[in-house]
Each structure stands twice: as structure tokens, then as C-alpha cells.
Amino acid sequence: MAATTIIRKTGEFAKDDPNCFNRLHHSLRPVGHARPGDYIVFETRDALDHQFNFETQHAAVADADLSRVHPMTGPIYIEGVERGDALAVTMVDIVPDIYGWTCILPGFGFLRDQFEEPFLANWRLDRLYARSEQIPGVRIPMAAFPGSIGVVPGEPEVEAALAREAAVADAGGMALPPDPTNALPADLFGPDGPYMDKALRTVPPRENGGNMDIKEMQLGTTIIFPCFVEGGGLWTGDVHYAQGDGEVSGSAIEMDATVTVTCQIIKGGGKHLKYPNFTGGAQLKQTEPTSFYAATGLPLKKSGELPPHLAWIDSPKLAALENVPEDLTLATRDALLNIIDYMVRERGLSRQQAYCVASAAVDLRIGQLVDVPNFMVSAILPLNIFKD
User: Considering the entire predicted model, what is its pTM?
Assistant: First the structure.
């Protein structure tokens, strides 16, 4: 008979909760134990650790402390897991909090060069819809999933990630180095911790999963993780009430939540996995809108400009191009800007409101990757979110 392991939330903030961490390292200690087939219940915190609430105003977003991002719940030691195994984790239930938020944070997000002012949508949540006074006339259906879920990386995986991300930063690209500020657990990763300069930030996903932000990882989906430490070290957090493909503003509808999963061990299965895989059935259909409007995009830009994803490349020839060949990111950017323009023009939203709606509800789809020089992307806006 299946047992239930519950990892409860204690304290207002993650620093007061012994069941939370916000850095990744092989030294993380389990906060609970479970057996394969047990129900595991995680009480999780929102991505910014309760820095926003219903009373928070737009200007406060610019003062958010990003060193506290991603307070995760766990890890859980799963009996019988060894390095080289795989852990199949099935999503059973997600209970939302009553409060959620989506923001535009200056300097962050896919269109960070286009949206430089802070904006915050506070959402009131139930198990049907999210509604926000900051974006009136819009209601977004619940389609919850964990933005971040993973296992603990092993020592080789931590060292490899540190090396390759340092190389990205050295080349001028965007990467977040270890930072002990507000790191948890503080005794391991804080300013006096033994691993303060070795603990990985939780923003990028890696071989162990993490901040994957894949909206299809909803109820009924099974996520299969390669395992790197004894016990696996299962954890989750950063739960999203709803999200569009891309999470383009940098946030979905972020919330506290109670997440229930079960898991099974695939002995030796991790040796065949480079990254997490996932499997399911109706989840893909459940994320499809009943009606939609779509805008398309091509890899075009203005001569002399370098969008953020290209800005680190010092190339006058690239800057001079209007048509950047085979650039999927630029085509995606173009489609997204076009659907934002549509929402402003046809739905009466401000550009900031439309950007947040896109982050919470617009899906980005690859059309083709072969018709050189122009790849094509569609931005699909569900029309059922606009209540008449």
C-alpha cells in the first residue's frame, strides 16, 4: 500500500524553512525519504519567495531581490536509486494558492530591450481561472505545472556546468556565476559556507532537469530524469498556474502550490538519457486553444541593430544585416512582437499588458527550419482568454 510523504512549508520566507534551498550542488542534504510508488507532497513557494502580494505596485518590481529566486522544496531521498538509474516522476495533482503574479523585470526577459519599465499583474487564482485587475477583460484557464523540477546533480555534473558557464561569461554571453548572497542552505552555500563558490544558480535547466519551464509537464505527464547521486534527490518548486511557450516576459503566472507526485525507478535507465525526457497522452491536447489568432515571424531586424541574443557577438557584418540567415531566435522575436502588436491594436491592451499575456498564454511554434535563409515561427494567441 502506498504511503504519503509530505514536505511542509514553514515560515514566511525560504530562509526560515529548513525544507528549502535555492542553489544546486551535490552536497544538498535530503529533507525527507520515500519509496517508489509512494505519494510525495511538496508544499512550494513562488519563484521570488513572497516578495510580491495583492498590494504590490509596479515600481516594486524593479527592487526585487533576484538572489532569492527559486526557493525549491526538497530534496527527497528515494530508496533504491543509484547513480546511473532513471527516476520516472508522474504528476498527480497541483493545488494552487489564491495569489499569483506575472511581471516585467527591467533587464530580464526575451524582449528586455523593448520593455524597460517595471510592470506587475497580480492574479486572483482558483482551480478554473486566473484574473487580474491590472489586465481587465482577460481570464486565463488553469493549466498548472512545475516550472522547476529535478534531481540533485552529481559532482562531475556540477564541475562540468561551472566550467562551461564560466566559459560563456568569459566570451561575453549571459550566464549567472555562483553567488553566496541569500544562498540556501546558508551553512553550505552562504558567505561562510564551504561551497559558496561552487553552488550552481537555479535559473538555467541542466542535465538534472531544473528550471525547464515546459508547460506540457502537466497532470498525468511522467518526467524521466537521469540520476546522479544515491537516492536521486527529487525536488520541485517555481510552480506555474499557466504559461505560454517561451515564458517570454521572464515569468509565467507564478504561485505557491501543493504538488503531489509518484515515482518509479528504472534501473540503469539513466545511462541512456542525456537530459530529462517526458511522456504522456492527452496533455498536449489539453494545452490547445479552442480558438486562436496567430502571427508569424521571420529572422529580420533593422540594419545596425543587434538584439540581446546577438549583442555579445562583435561583428559589424552581422550588425549591418537586415536578414540574419537561419536565426530561429530572431524569427521568434519577430512573431512575438507581431502578436503583441495585434493585442494592442485589436484587443485594446497596452504593450506591457500584452507582453504579460504573451508570457502567460501565447504559444510559440516552429513552422520550418529548412527554407533558408528564413526560418518561420508562429505566435498563437488563444482567443478564449478574452471574456466578452
Answer: 0.97
